Amino acid sequence: MTAVRPEDVTSLRPIKPPSRWTGELAQAIDGTARPTASDGWPGPGTDGARAVAEAISQHLGSVHMAADVVIDEGDGYSAAWRKTCLLVTRSHIALLVMTIDD
Fold first, then answer.
1. What would the pLDDT profile of 30-63 be if each residue is shown by its tens digit?
2. pTM of the entire structure?
3. Which of 32, 54, 75, 100 has the maximum number of C-beta atoms within 10 A of its C-beta?
4. Neighbours of 66 (CB within 10 A)
5. Interacting residues of 83 by C-beta distance below 8 A, sequence separation 6+
6. What is the rounded CA–CA span in Å between residue 60 and residue 82?
7. Which of 93, 84, 62, 97 has its CA nearest to residue 13?
């Protein structure tokens, strides 16, 4: 993914409280990884989201603000699935972009 220009951002939705971003990420992962699961077992999303959150906290610090971001890629790269979060810690602003290619 190349640099994101402000005009490429089509939607920005704050996630409140900020800690809820890991839950939203878990739901997105589960919806992609197990779209037809009906066995009642939790999907991989919770563990995956927890691992991502721990890695970010170790490197950037705890997340104080979070937002779900939709970026218009135009005619460029198109993924089968994409989840983008803007994460703000005490000392960093990070754009977390996760994709699944087909």
1. 777 655 555 566 667 778 888 888 888 899 998 9
2. 0.72
3. 32
4. 23
5. 25, 28, 29, 97, 98, 99
6. 22
7. 84
